[in-house]
């Protein structure tokens, strides 16, 4: 479950940005090539954020597609399938690009300071 490592890094980044403020939400854009499973990501974030400024934060996970360019018919399409084939002709002779990003797009802070050890109120 690689989502745990990903969420541990995300929580570290969120805490650095928070500066002692409580985090109520975040939006993360992740490419389909990372093969993130939404439910596993949610569970991993809950574990990684326990006892931190991000505990109980709502994370909006946005999965971005790959671009598939077919060598057989020339079609260019987007796909959320990691093992993409050309949608129009079904060929597997394709070039796949993109879908490998991992970006923290936004953070929403709560109104009260975080009650986190090591962070003054």
Automatic annotation (TrEMBL):
Alphabetically sorted, this entry's keywords are: Metal-binding, Nickel, Zinc
Where does the source fall among the domains of life?
Bacteria
The record's listing under InterPro entries reads: Hydgase_Ni_incorp_HypA/HybF_CS, HypA/HybF
Q: Which GO terms describe its molecular function?
A: nickel cation binding; zinc ion binding
Q: Which Pfam families match?
A: HypA
Q: Which PROSITE patterns match?
A: HYPA (PS01249)
In which residues is Ni(2+) bound?
A: 2
Record flagged with keyword Membrane = no
What GO biological process terms does the UniProt entry carry, in alphabetical order? protein maturation
Gene3D superfamilies under this entry?
A: 3.30.2320.80
Described purpose of this protein according to its UniProt entry: Involved in the maturation of [NiFe] hydrogenases. Required for nickel insertion into the metal center of the hydrogenase.
Query: Record's family?
Result: Belongs to the HypA/HybF family.
- Record's protein name: Hydrogenase maturation factor HypA
Species, as recorded: Nonomuraea montanisoli
Tell me the classification of the organism that encodes this protein.
Answer: Bacteria, Bacillati, Actinomycetota, Actinomycetes, Streptosporangiales
Gene from which the chain derives? hypA
């Amino acid at each position: 479950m690689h989502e745990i490592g990903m969420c541990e890094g995300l929580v570290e980044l969120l805490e650095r940005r928070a500066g002692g403020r409580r985090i109520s939400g975040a939006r993360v854009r992740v490419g389909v090539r990372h093969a993130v499973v939404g439910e596993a990501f949610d569970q991993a974030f809950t574990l990684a954020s326990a006892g931190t400024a991000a505990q109980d934060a709502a994370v909006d996970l946005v999965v971005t597609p790959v671009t598939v360019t077919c060598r057989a018919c020339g079609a260019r399409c987007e796909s959320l399938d990691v093992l993409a084939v050309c949608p129009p002709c079904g060929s597997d002779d394709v070039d796949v690009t993109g879908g490998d990003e991992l970006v923290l797009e936004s953070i929403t802070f709560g109104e009260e300071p975080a009650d986190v050890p090591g962070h003054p109120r």
